Amino acid sequence: MTEPLAPGTAEVPAPGTPGGPLPGEPEFDLVVRSRRVVTPEGVRPLAVAVRDGKIAALLPHDSLEHRREGTAREAVDLGEVALLPGLVDTHVHVNEPGRTHWEGFASATRAAAAGGVTTVVDMPLNALPPTVSVAALEIKRQAAEGRCHVDVGFWGGAVPGNEGELEPLHRAGVFGVKCFLSPSGVDEFPALDRAGLREALRTLASFDGLMIVHAEDPALLTDPPGPAYRDFLASRTAEAERRAVAQVVELAAETGARAHIVHVSSASCLDVLRAARRDGVRISAETCPHYLTLTAEEVSGPAYKCCPPIREAANRDGLWRGLADGLLMGVVSDHSPSPPDLKAPDFAAAWGGISSLQLGLPVVWTSARERGYGLSEVARWMAEGPAALVGLPYKGAIRPGADADLVAFDPEGRFTVDAAALHHRHPVTPYDGRTLTGVVVRTWLRGRPAGGGAPRGRLLAREGIG
């Protein structure tokens, strides 16, 4: 006797009925069974059935054993290996075209797939030209076409003088636009001042666009007085970040626009965000694996340099509380690679950016499990939350109707990071030599293996576009 359906599962149309397979054909293209399937309703033993690239049904774990042979073209039994939704990383600097020697769509998306990431959203700067117009967006899309091993979407950019491009970019399908309040590090993507931010937010509010903000107050930033990490950390204080977040909150409240703070590094920002939420301001925020797992006390070289910087251990604990409280909606990589020669010679001169796209899941899981969090929380922070930020309801969760983006993840497996073995273009990461818990065993993109062979990723646009 077939066991009854559990809550959150769904039956599927029978062969020959509307929505079902033709008589005599397998019901599903793929069925993946696991004793630990991570769904929005919790972790359960299930069989995830895939048809035409979508999750067709969530069935009781052993149900297919009681049905006719040939139910699925391919069946995978993971046993105790967990099945997670494909991660959604909304903060990735791919850098192609123009700086493809830093990173590119082929290498970045191959690394993503190896790390269980099935959707990335590419940042508008560090490529040439930056994505600050529809024409530049088309150049970016042409560079990505046919090179992506996972699905890829795009952010636009807000820079001084391009207010007239923001609505066309929105109509062209970007998920929102990014601005800097302090120097971005590249001359072709200048920062917005207070008046420029207000004007951009007013423009975005007129069509309910999303602004994402690198929030550091330039008036409080200084040049590092020396080459050591303590000098760099002192040059970019927590107060500079907190004050900039407060400015974004103030102007979002004034204009009614939606705003999102990227890569929050300072727990001092959380009270500002909490008060803004209480007041009904449309504000959200994210953090990154390096802020949750690394500390200023352990920094050992320029591979750790990023902006805003990695702060002290007590601050890291505050960020975890912000995640648990929901003030931080997700964890994304801010993968910002560069050639090794730019990550030298010291903290004053090195390029600021951390390469971690392939490693985010085991990095976060290693610390999360030690702090008592489970796979459900990690999936919410790294898949469901980022998907919701950019409005992709068919990504980020294992549920019927969603894309069959799946990750087989061994939460007890361990490995030692070898930077030279990563798929990132350059073997530079602060995690080199670190032993992590959690191994990505296999990744599926719309029900097919991702990361090897021909690229099968699609270029995504905001819902309702393209």
SSE blueprint:
Blueprint: E1 28-39, E2 42-51, E3 54-60, E4 72-77, E5 82-85, E6 87-92, H1 105-114, E7 117-122, H2 134-144, E8 151-154, E9 156-157, H3 163-171, E10 177-180, H4 194-205, E11 210-214, H5 229-235, H6 238-255, E12 258-261, H7 270-278, E13 283-287, H8 289-293, H9 313-325, E14 330-331, H10 360-370, H11 375-389, E15 406-416, E16 435-445, E17 448-449
Parallel strand pairs: 1-4, 6-7, 7-8, 9-10, 10-11, 11-12, 12-13, 13-14
Antiparallel strand pairs: 1-2, 2-3, 5-15, 15-16, 16-17
Helix pairs in contact: 4-6
GO molecular function, one term: allantoinase activity
Biased composition (Pro residues): 15-24
Pathway: Nitrogen metabolism; (S)-allantoin degradation; allantoate from (S)-allantoin: step 1/1
